[in-house]
Amino acid sequence: MCASAVLLWQAATVRYNYGGNWTALFCTGEKAPLPPALESEHIYRFAGSYGFDGQLYHYIAHDPLLRLGLDRFIDAPRLRYPRILVPGLAHLLALGRTERIDWAYRAVIVLFFFAGAYWLGRVAQSRGCSSAWGAAFFFVPAAIVSADRLTVDVSLAALSVAFALYAREEESSAKLYAILVLAGLARDTGVLLVAAWCLWLLQRRQWRRAALFSTAALPMMGWYAFVFSRTSPYRLGGSLTFPLGGLADRFLHPLSYALPAGPALLAVLLDYVALLGTVLALGAAIWVALRRGFDAPRWAMLLFVALAVFLWRPGEWTSAYEFPRILSPLIILLAIEAMGSFCILYVAPLGLVLPRLGLQVGLQVAGVVQGVLGFRA
Questions:
Q1: Is the pTM of this model over 0.90?
Q2: How many CA within 13 A on the CB side of residue 203?
Q3: What is the overall mean pLDDT for the chain?
Q4: Residue 375: count of CB within 10 angstroms of its CB
């Protein structure tokens, strides 16, 4: 259901909003340089825009080993290329054939929706709930953004659910190890799942297992070494601030939207609602760990809290398509805590973030509705 819903939505918005051009899902901006090697794809480009992250991972899928020079069209190759899981799988699925890579990339995204829903359904069953809750994976912030703009974040969101499942199954050590390896290749923040599991093992004085599972980060480190040997350093935007300085800066400086007064005001208000939801997630993660005790998923939540509190720069707190998708592992692990013993505190952050994401895709929904009703071609 979840995977089919994503595919149907993408087909509808491509048909009615983008004239049937599936490359629009990569959200390629008109102001961003386009690789001449991909001009034959007739990539849909958004006027007056620099585009979004999906366009960069699209290029990586065409050139995963940095042989074609497409890294010259990526803003920060040393930042983007380490997130190789989705682009790399797309390249493998297409057998390296250029004309098949785009559909393979979209297929990989849908497959991660399938996997995320499956694992979430399994988690729900293990907690005495209906497996139908797996379909709720569709509403994870990272999943929404990946469905809309083909970013890679849905992969780590799905793997985070698998982490919550297999971390509580003693007989699933091999599966958990594989999940941790993939998490490190999905996003740089995926290594926090490796750290969380090792901390849990150290807490239980399982020194040898902790040492063994720490090797799950080796494939990630090896890939980083490969990428670093072939790319130039990049300059991070902004500078490190005091704890939660980036969040404080975001609260004090609301974004300005090129929209009519009413929609612009609504967007700003919902921005603040989403920010409040994120703050609530940070506090709730600490609360649940102190109240229910530490286990591997709760260690993971605390590590994501530390990431947001101590390391993030103001740039990471910009649009509603940024901080909720990056913190999706925290939001979904927190929501899982509510399964079996419902507590609104654990699901409230997700509920506060979703309205702003809904507004973001609202125009597309309107276009689809008009198209279905026959008001537009």
A1: yes
A2: 12
A3: 92
A4: 10
CA distance 138 to 110: 11
Q: Give the Å distances, CA to CA, from 107 to 86, 111, 273, 294.
A: 10, 6, 33, 37
Give the type of residue at 169. Answer: E
For the record, the structure tokens of 129 come out as 């709930």
Coil, strand or helix at 32: coil
Q: φ and ψ at 46, to 5 degrees?
A: -85, 125
pLDDT bracket for residue 205 (50, 70, 90): very high
Q: Are 42 and 21 in contact (CB under 8 A)?
A: yes
**Reduced to 3 states, what is the DSSP secondary structure of residue 193?**
helix
* 353/164 Cα distance (integer angstroms): 22
Contact 220, 193 (CB under 8 A): no
Q: Cα–Cα distance between 31 and 40 in angstroms, integer?
A: 19
Report how far apart the first and last C-alpha atoms of the chain are (Å, whole number).
28
**Token output for 107:** 């297929």
Q: What angle do CA 287, 290, 296 make, to 5 degrees?
A: 100
Q: What is the pLDDT of residues 139-198, one digit of tens each?
A: 999 999 999 999 999 999 999 999 999 998 877 899 999 999 999 999 999 999 999 999
Average pLDDT on 20-24 reads: 96
The stretches of 187-233 forming alpha helices (DSSP H) are 191-203, 207-214, 218-228
Q: Within a 10 A sphere around the Cβ of 48, how many other Cβ atoms?
A: 8
